[in-house]
Amino acid sequence: MKKLITGGTVVTAADEYRADVLVEDGKVAQIGHDLDAGGAEVVDASGLLVFPGGIDPHTHLDMPFNNTVTDDDWETGTIAAAHGGTTTIIDFCLTAGEKRLKDAVVKWHEKADGKAVIDYGFHLMVGELNEDTLSQLPDVLEEEGIASVKVFLAYAREFQASDRTLFQAFKVGADTGAVVLVHCENGSVIDELVDTALAEGHTEPKYHYLTRPPQLEGEATKRAIELANLAGAKLYVVHVTCKEAVDEIIEARNKGYDVLGETCPPYLTLDQTYLEKPGFEGAKYVWSPPLREKSNQDVLWHALQSGQLQTIGSDQCSFNFNGKKRLGIDDFSKIPNGGPFIEDRFGVLYSEGVVKGRISLQEFVAVVSTNAAKTFGLFPQKGTIAVGSDADIVLFDPGVERTISASTHHMNVDYNAFEGMEVRGEPVSVMVRGEWVIKDRKFVGNPGSGMYLRRELANAKTERQPVGLGGK
């Protein structure tokens, strides 16, 4: 059914204006004034901001990790995302020893099928590239419509790649045009620090951040930057937390290196003192990289405002406190790393960024939607409100004052990392490809309605050269 959104203020990464928006056949059909409703459902958006749907480029739904599995699956996670104003996610498809990389992708499709209520794509994680998997990778990316590869330099016992694997991934990125995402921490040194702390009898949650100092994030960021540049690849540094990493990214970008950076809401609003809460309470805030000293928050906000960091991911990776987090009650290194952020990414950034004058409305749209769409091959289908684009639209009330709480959120987890935070602004109604998923703050969508988004690699297969040394 056609829909006519009237009286609202349309905000994109470039513009802000009063206009009506006509939606037809899942697309934005017209933008203007006094549009002919023609039998459409008319929605009064007076007093509301009309945003393009949020794009969360960093989620982990139904993911095995730390000898357990995240508590939000593709149904609960995407419903929560929709309530929060996000209409597209890009989740990490993990490879875990499959002989065929395609088998890992099939497994991730099975997790999402029949459950996702918003649109989604995949990043493909690679932990080891031998001759066999290296030969498979370009074709899998092209055949499966995946345009990004993830490499971990952390979690030495689970996912950490060698420098050789990292460089091989960059060579594939340069050859195919795939973006290479890197978790930048020095996992091997972290393991040494963890072992030392445990040997000295330190088991409390605060030792999670004490054994993962910011210098190790800065060092790994520098290493990834230089190897990416040597290979001629585009590097996307995920969940940047600290000045040490930001400085490396800024220096590289000033040199003309093809480097992008992402940060996440908790690093902009919380600090390491949350891990110092009494008893085991600090386990709620165990994720990696860890929370940093508060001084890093201004660095991150400035980097967003200046365009040195381009996107906001949630890094959604939820584990119940009164359940899986307690696996590490006697050993901080066994606390499952991750937190629940997918629902609050959009709203926290609006309240802490726009309302407090740290970023403009246009910068807000850019970092929560448009830049991710452009980086990961979804623009202009996603990430903007324009004629011909998908009608992924958020009607947002900027005047609502509310308190974030686990008692009212929609994530399948028993705590909220932002518990008690007072925020202004809230999504009222959310549509994906012209169909309501959230209407008047209530879920009205259908599990399984989310569409898998095939993305084109920057370099066509016919243009490829054998994977080898790049360079600039």
Termini, distance in Å?
51 Å
Helices, by number, come to: 12
Main sheet: strands, sense, barrel: 8 strands, parallel
User: Judging from the principal axes of the Cα atoms, what is the shape?
Assistant: globular
Q: List low-pLDDT spans.
A: 460-472
How many strand segments?
21
* Range of strand content: 15-25%
Over the alpha carbons, how many angstroms does the gyration radius reach? Answer: 21 Å
Helical coverage, percent range:
25-40%
Fold and architecture overview:
The chain has 472 residues and is α/β, with parallel strands linked by helices. 30% of the residues lie in helices and 22% in strands. The strands form four sheets. An eight-stranded parallel sheet has the order 8-11-12-13-14-15-16-17. A hairpin with a 2-residue loop joins β19 and β20. The longest helix is centred in the middle third of the chain and has 18 residues.
